[in-house]
Amino acid sequence: MKHIPQYLFSKRFLYMTVLYITIFSVIFMNIYTPFSTTAWFNLQDESLTMATIMFYILAVLFLLFSKSVLHDISRKVSFSTFGLLLYYLTETAILALLYTLFTTIPNQTVFSNSITEIYFKSLACIGMILIIPYTICYLYGLSKGLSEQLNHTGSNNSENNSHLINIRDHKDKIKLSLLSDDIFYIVSEDNYIKIFYEQNNEIHSSMIRTSSKSIEEALSAHNIIRCHRSYMVNTNKIQFFNNDRNNLYVLLTNRKINPIPVSRTYRELMETELSKRQR
Questions:
Q1: Angle between helices 115-162 and 11-32 (to 10 degrees)
Q2: Are residues 266 and 206 both part of a single domain?
Q3: What φ, ψ does residue 273 adopt, rounded to 5°?
Q4: What residues are paired with 192 via a beta bridge?
Q5: pLDDT tens, residue by residue, 182-223
Q6: Of 20, 71, 184, 278, which sees the most CB atoms within 10 A?
Q7: How many CB atoms neighbour CB 129 within 10 A?
Q8: What is the spatial distance between Cα 57 and Cα 79, in angstroms, rounded to a whole number?
Q9: Residues 15 and 82 grouped into a single domain
Q10: Which residues contact 202 (CB under 8 A, 6 or more apart)?
C-alpha cells in the first residue's frame, strides 16, 4: 500500500498501541520465561522484582517517546508500509539492546551465554512479543483509517455541494472557513501555508500554521491540486496554462495575481486535471 491512513499515526491510536503491547508482553513473558535460558523476569523473587519493574518502566517510556516521534515525522513525511515496518524493527532492536544491558548488569542473575547470544535471543523474543500486537493494531488501524477516509469523502462531497471548506491548523482547530470557489492558490512556507482567496472582489490572504501535506489531502476533492513544491492551485481558476518545458506556469482568472509556477514534477498531473475539465 503506497499510502497509509493518517489514523495509524494519531497520538491516541499510537499510545493505545503501547498500552496493548504492555499488557500482551506481561502475559507473553509469564508463559515464555520458564522455557528460556536468558529470561530473568520475576515478580516473586525480591532480587529481580525491582529490575523487572524498572525494565518495564523504561521500555514503556521508550515506546511512548518513539510513538511521539513517529507522530511528528508522519506530519512531514509520507510513510509506506515498508517504511513503517523499518521503524518498528528499529524499535525492536533498541528494546533488545535495553534488555541485554539489564541482563548483563553485575549482581543480576548470571548466565553462561555471551552478550551477543543474549542480544540475538532477546531480539527474537521481543520480536515475537511485538509482532502479534503490532499486526493486530495495524489491521485495526488500517480498517478504522479507511473507514474514516470513506466518511471523510462523503463529508467532502457534501461540502462540495455547499462549497464550504474548513481549513484547520496543526492542532486540528478550524482557523478559516470559506467557499471553495473563492480560493485561488496556496503557498507553503516552512510549517505554514498561505491561502489566497477572493472576498468582496478583493484578493486576501491568510497564514495558517499547518503542513502543506495535510492541506493538500483535505482540499484534493475540491479541485485544488499541487502544481509545484511550494504551490497549490484551484484548477477552476486557471485561465491559461503555458506548457513550454522551459517555462511552465499558469495564469488565473484574476489578472492581479502573478503567474503561478508549475514544476516539471507536476506537469503531467496538471495536464491530466485540465483534461478532465474539458470532458
A1: 150
A2: yes
A3: -65, -40
A4: 189, 209
A5: 999 999 988 899 999 998 888 999 999 998 888 888 887 788
A6: 184
A7: 20
A8: 28
A9: yes
A10: none
pTM: 0.50
Spell out the SS3 assignment of 105-159.
CCCCCCCCCCHHHHHHHHHHHHHHHHHHHHHHHHHHHHHHHHHHHHHHHHHHHHH
3-state helix, strand, coil in the chain (%, to 5): 55, 20, 20
Cα of 175 vs its chain's centroid, Å: 22
Which residues, in sequence order, are bridge partners of residue 209?
A: 192
> Beta strands 174-179 and 224-228: pairing type?
unpaired
Residue 53: Cβ within 10 Å count = 11
Q: Cα angle vertex 23, ends 20, 25, to 5°?
A: 105
Say if residue 44 is in the same domain as residue 138. Answer: yes
Residue 167 and residue 151 share a domain: no
pLDDT digits (tens, 9 = 90+) for 37-66: 656 666 566 666 777 788 888 999 999 999
3-state SS assignment for residue 183: strand
Beta carbons of 70 and 14 less than 8 angstroms apart: yes
> What's the total number of domains in the chain?
2
How open is the CA angle 229-152-190, to the nearest 5 degrees? 25
The model's confidence at residue 161, banded by pLDDT at 50, 70 and 90, is: very low
For the stretch 135-151, pLDDT in tens is 888 888 888 767 765 65
Cα–Cα distances in angstroms (integers) from residue 118 to residues 13, 40, 104, in the given order = 32, 12, 9
Place of cell 543474549: 118
- Are residues 221 and 215 in contact, defined by beta-carbon separation less than 8 angstroms? no
